[in-house]
Specification:
There is one protein chain. With 248 residues, the chain is α+β, with helices and mostly antiparallel strands. It has a domain at 3-143 and 233-247: OB fold (Dihydrolipoamide Acetyltransferase, E2P) (Beta Barrel). The protein contains six helices and twelve strands. Strands 1-2-3-6-5 form a five-stranded mixed barrel. Strands 11-9-10-12 form a four-stranded mixed beta sheet, with no helix packed on it. Helix 1 runs parallel beside helix 6. The two termini are 36 Å apart.
Length: 248
């Protein structure tokens, strides 16, 4: 599935979720990690919640424990309102989570405890701005020079080995660019470290290489279709978000 098709499907899912969003209210009785908690509902049943639009470090990653601790501070033992956006493949409710007036998802990203999960929340401007500010101020996990997003870590990306001149890119003989977060960075037999790849080189599909190189573009008709969908769906999404925020 192409990235553009995936984006379109996610947008359709987001709109459908917003139009039929349910709200769960209960007490947070368990925090599993930086983006997962459990609510105990008034009928004593429990509901596992995956925080919408964010992705916290995996347990094997740096800053995972700090992220879990921050979510514990924000939510544990408190009455939580969870606006369910959808269900993931594990059956968990994926939800915008509020502790009183506090937007817990936003607070996690603002404090540098999680990433904005762009692929699943592409239109969430608040999360995008919060991540940009946290990264600029080097808060939380952004203190690391090359923090690895969890979705890349799950694909096998690991911290890079240092190189002699501390150059951030490795370019193989075939012209494939790997950045310093990539598991293939500097591990192939033939290639070179460089501070600036050539524009003719191509990005690694795992790490994305570098924006200075030529990236394969989507067909024009995909871009046109995506633009039409965005223009048509954006008013509905914004209206629903305003209603959700008003209830918050």
């Amino acid at each position: 599935m192409t990235d553009s098709l995936r984006t379109i499907l996610i947008l359709f899912t987001a709109v459908a979720s917003l139009l039929r969003a349910e709200t769960l209210v209960g007490q947070c009785t368990h925090v599993a990690d930086g983006d997962t908690l459990t609510l105990t509902l008034p009928d004593k049943s429990s509901e596992k919640i995956r925080l919408y639009g964010i992705d916290a470090p995996e347990k094997q990653q740096e800053y995972a424990e700090e992220a879990k601790q921050r979510l514990t501070e924000l939510a544990s033992g408190k009455e939580i309102r969870a606006v369910v956006m959808n269900r993931d493949r594990y059956g968990r409710a994926v939800a915008k989570v509020y502790a009183g007036k506090t937007d817990v998802c936003l607070a996690m990203v603002s404090g540098g405890c999680a990433w904005h999960y762009v692929i699943y929340a592409p239109l969430d401007v608040d999360l995008a701005e919060a991540e940009t500010l946290a990264a600029a101020q080097k808060w939380g996990l952004w203190q690391h020079s090359h923090p690895i997003p969890p979705w890349e870590f799950r694909k096998g990306a690991r911290p890079a080995k240092p190189n002699e001149h501390n150059h951030p890119y490795w370019v193989t003989e075939s012209g494939r660019i790997h950045n310093a977060r990539c598991k293939y960075f500097g591990t192939t037999q033939n290639g070179r470290y460089t501070a600036q790849p050539q524009a003719s080189d191509s990005n690694c599909r795992l790490c994305g290489g570098t924006v200075t190189s030529e990236s394969p573009s989507f067909p024009t008709w995909w871009n046109i279709l995506l633009l039409i969908l965005l223009l048509g769906l954006l008013p509905l999404i914004l209206l629903r978000l305003l209603l959700i925020r008003a209830r918050g």
